[in-house]
Amino acid sequence: MNKQPLVLFDGPCTFCQRSVRFILRHERSADLIFSSLQSETGQNQLQTFAIPPEIDAMVLIEEGEAFSGSDAALRICKYLRRPWHWFYGLRHLPGWMHRPVYRWIARHRYQWFGKDESCPLPDPAQADRFI
Q1: Contacts (Cβ under 8 Å, ≥6 apart) of 75
Q2: The pLDDT of residue 98
Q3: How far apart are CA 80 and CA 40, in angstroms?
């Protein structure tokens, strides 16, 4: 398996697709790789890290550890340019402060942003970043 940090996202979720495009646009360098939760890679990683397959949150696999939800989102910020990079510091806040906000957005994301029947193909210029 690749040693680069891996971001797993809900492939059909329009909000998640936009989030991945946001990350790609604002990364400091091409450190992250991506895969949908529904892909074979995604499902294998969920099993490897004993994450329930029905998870509906973004997952970051980094240095042999898996983070999900707001913990993953905040850790992803360290790979982004300023000002987004500064949100990485919020990971020090107690989880009860940021996790409910993430869960609330996750619970309503299909209603607000929609859902595709499948995960669209990545931009050909960035296809090597997706597994």
Answers
A1: 60, 62, 67, 88, 91
A2: 85
A3: 27
Count other C-beta atoms under 10 Å from residue 131's C-beta: 15
Q: What is the dihedral of CA 106, 27, 117, 112, to 10 degrees?
A: 40
Q: Which two tokens stand for residue 23?
A: 């990350």
Mean pLDDT value of segment 47-74: 92
Name the percent of the chain in helix, strand, coil, to the closest 5: 50, 15, 35
CA angle, corner 85, sides to 37 and 64, nearest 5? Answer: 45
- Backbone phi, psi, residue 95, to 5°: -55, -30
Return d(Cα 26, Cα 22) in angstroms, integer. 6
How does pLDDT run across 102-113, given as a tens digit for each residue? 888 888 888 888
Give the sign of the dihedral formed by CA 37, CA 28, CA 104, CA 108.
negative
> Which segment of 26-30, 83-87, 113-117 scores lowest on mean pLDDT?
113-117
